[in-house]
Amino acid sequence: AIETVAREDVVWRPVNLILIVAVAPMLLWRRTHPLAMVAIAFSLFAAVDLAAIAIGVTWEGPEPSALVLLLFPYALFRWGSGREATIGLAFVLFPVVVGAAVAPAGEVVGGALILLFAAALGAAFRYRSSARLHGRDQAKLREREQLARELHDTVAHHVSAIAIQAQAGRTVAESRPEAVVDALAVVEKEASRALTEMRTIVGALRRGEQSDLTPQPGVADIERLARSTGNRPHVDVSLTGDLGELPPSVDAALYRLAQESVTNALRHARHATLVQVVVTGDDDSVRLTVRDDGDARPADAASSSGFGLLGMAERARLLGGAFEVGPNREGGWTVHAELPKSGRGA
Question: Residues with Cβ < 8 Å from 170, sequence gap 6 or more?
Answer without folding.
Answer: none
